[in-house]
Amino acid sequence: MDTTSIFPQGDKLSNDWFTGNAFLTAFVAKDKNNEFSAGNVSFEAVARTHWHTHPKGQVLIVLEGEGFYQEEGAPAQSIKRGDVVNIPENVKHWHGAIAKSEMAHIAITNFKGELQVTWLEPVSDQDYAAVNSK
C-alpha cells in the first residue's frame, strides 16, 4: 500500500487559530458557483484547531493518520483514515491530530454570506492531554 501523502503539505496555518503546526492545501475557494471552500488540512502530531463554529456547517474526510473530533459538552471521538464527520451549523467543536500521529483531512466548509468560521479559545493543554490519555 502506498503511504505517501496524496496532497502537498501546503501553507502553514496561523497559530491564532491552531495549536502546533497545521498546513492547508486549498482546492476550491468560494466563488459565483460555490458557496463553500475545500482543502486538505494536515496536522503534525499534537496539532489541533482552537474551538470554533461554522454558521453553515462543515464536513471532514480523514485521509491519513489519527485524530480527534470533539463537540462542546460531548466526549472526544477518535477519527482515522476513511472517517467522515458531518459537523452541524453553529456547533462549537475542535479537531486535530492525536499526540503520537500526524493526521490529514479534507475540510469542506460552507459559507453564510461572507462568514465561514468563528474562531474561539484554544483547546487547553490539560483538556487535550486528558483526551489523549483515554
Question: Topology of this structure?
Answer:
Blueprint: E1 11-12, E2 18-19, E3 22-28, E4 36-43, E5 48-49, E6 52-53, E7 58-71, E8 77-80, E9 84-87, E10 93-97, E11 103-110, E12 118-119, H1 125-132
Antiparallel strand pairs: 1-3, 2-5, 3-4, 4-11, 6-12, 7-8, 7-9, 7-10, 7-11
Notes on the structure:
The chain has 134 residues and is mainly beta. The protein has one domain (11-132): Jelly Rolls, CATH 2.60.120. The chain contains one helix and twelve strands. The chain has one helix spanning 125-132; strands at 11-12, 18-19, 22-28, 36-43, 48-49, 52-53, 58-71, 77-80, 84-87, 93-97, 103-110, 118-119. Strands 1, 3, 4, 7, 8, 9, 10 and 11 form an eight-stranded antiparallel beta sheet that branches. Strands 2-5 form a two-stranded antiparallel ribbon. Strand 3 (22-28) and strand 4 form a beta hairpin. The model has no long low-confidence stretch (mean pLDDT 95).
Number of strands: 12
User: Which percent range describes the beta-strand content?
Assistant: 35-45%
Shape: globular
Instruction: Name the average pLDDT.
Output: 95
Largest sheet: 8 strands, antiparallel
CA distance, first residue to last residue:
29 Å
Highest CATH level, the class: Mainly Beta
CATH homologous superfamily assignment: Jelly Rolls
Number of domains: 1
Low-confidence stretches: none
Task: State Rg.
Answer: 14 Å
Architecture in CATH? Sandwich
- Run of helices and strands: EEEEEEEEEEEEH
User: Which structural class best describes the helix and strand composition?
Assistant: mainly beta
Portion of residues within helices: under 10%
